[in-house]
Amino acid sequence: MNNILGVFNGKFQDLEKIKVSPLSRAYTFSDSVYEVIPFYNNNIIAFDKHINRLSNSCDALNIKTDISLCSDEILHLISTSNHKNGYVYYQISRGVDALRSHMYDTSLEVETFGYVVNHAFESKDLKVSLCEDIRWQRCDIKSTSLLGNVMSMNQSKNNHCDEVIMHKDDEITEGGASNVFFVIDGNIHTPSLSTKILPGITRELLISETKQNGIFIEEGNYSVNDLLRAESIWLTSSTKGLGQVIEIIGHDTKIQVNNEVFHKCNEIFNNAFLSG
Ligand code: PDD
Question: Ligand 1 pocket check: which of 131, 179, 202 to mutate, most ligand atoms within 8 Å of Cβ?
Fold first, then answer.
């Protein structure tokens, strides 16, 4: 953890030097929201969309903050880092609460924290497992309360997988830290936006960028069986870009590793956001 640039409550310093109160509600209640903002070749990918989502997450939890200050800090972290490619992690918590009361006091001072790291945006082939989505019912909020994801992803890691694809009862929701796309008979599908999934920014960018290239992605409700008959599956996120699924552990699938539709979408995405 050498020389990672961080910012805590407006003060820029080495990540290691930042001291946080254990009574921060980020610790005691996971009462905090976050963003992961990627940049490639010094260009920030979809900055405004990340700031908007951060602001929506704060609104959903009634965390009052000056979003323009947060956005300035994120820009400062990126411009002063020596990295060409990387991302900023930025978190906003409701603040330090000496009473540890479930019912928070609205006068608490919001606590902000961020850091910037180097990251290589390499497309990685993924082995995944399927699991029941055990998370809460507001997965559209980018909250740091991620224990459902953490439990499922670590179980999947024990099975030598890189990710999970979750389903609520039989309905496909999303990956542990990504959104899901799949191809059946040449047509691309992805679960519709709802409170069951995070409105992924990579998902949104891919849908609009492919549309401009004459490729239509259908958003709908899909079952585990739909996924299992797909000829291609991929996961999207700000840190993965598009990651192709090559195996679903424990299931026979029709996945073709050299699927044309996947490669076309990956090329469109990379040309638009990860080139130069
Ligand atoms: N996670 N769904 C979940 C549950 C996620 O955690 C993420 C991203 C996504 C994809 O969203 P986006 O395309 O906006 O990154 C979908 C980030 C990268 C993380 O938690 O590190």
Answer: 179
